[in-house]
Amino acid sequence: MSYPFSGSARPAPGSPSSMPTPPTGWPIGSYGTYEEAQRAVDHLAGSDFPVREVTIVGVDLMLVERVTGKLTWGKVLAGGAASGAWIGLLIGLVMSIASPQGTGALSSMLAGLGGGILIGVGFAAAGYAAMRGRRDFSSASQLVAGRYDVLAQPRHAEHGRNLLAHLAMRPQASP
Question: With b meaning 16 or more CB within 10 Å and e meaning fewer, what string describes 125-162?
């Protein structure tokens, strides 16, 4: 007999944990939003369920890119100047701390700031010019799931399903 999502939930002590591993356990609940899945796990935790045996899995993943505006040379150069200014200010601050006493901390910071702005503008302009008008918009990307399944290890699955069934019968509190 095979079981869904079988495998090892957590790496053995001393084994590398950086390798991706598929989730394990049996489904005990399925929810349309991450908040609902979180609420379910909170309910399990409040019912003294061993939540260390629980995994929330996003299923049917989608990359959603929301367009936030049109890009212009002015916006690109201003963004490059702003990011370069932060880096340059940080470098100027380090230079002013590392320099001998009395050699002009303010001038080191201003030099770093100016250099950072020039480099930031240069890199931003080069990147935007290389796109040749193929991507004249700004956007924000987000990874979302179509549903969120709550899994529990097989030895706790039936108990978890029963607890979540009681949660489903309770009215949800308003935010």
Answer: eeebeeeeeeeeeeeeeeeebeebbbbbbeebbeebee
Question: What does the pLDDT look like over 122-146, one tens digit per residue?
Answer: 999 999 999 888 888 989 999 999 9
Cα–Cα nearest to 116, from 80, 85, 92: 85
DSSP 7-55: S-SSPPTTS---S-----SEEEEEESSHHHHHHHHHHHHHTT--GGGEE
- Answering whether pTM is above 0.70, one says no
Q: Is 101 helix (H, G, I), strand (E, B) or coil?
A: coil
From residue 6, alpha-carbon distances to 2, 10, 28, 79 in Å are: 8, 12, 14, 47
In this predicted model, which residue has the larger pLDDT, 8 or 151?
151
Kindly tell me if the per-residue pLDDT of 49 is higher than 50: yes
β-partners of residue 137 are 70
Residues in the chain, total: 175
Side chain identity at 42, as an amino acid letter? D
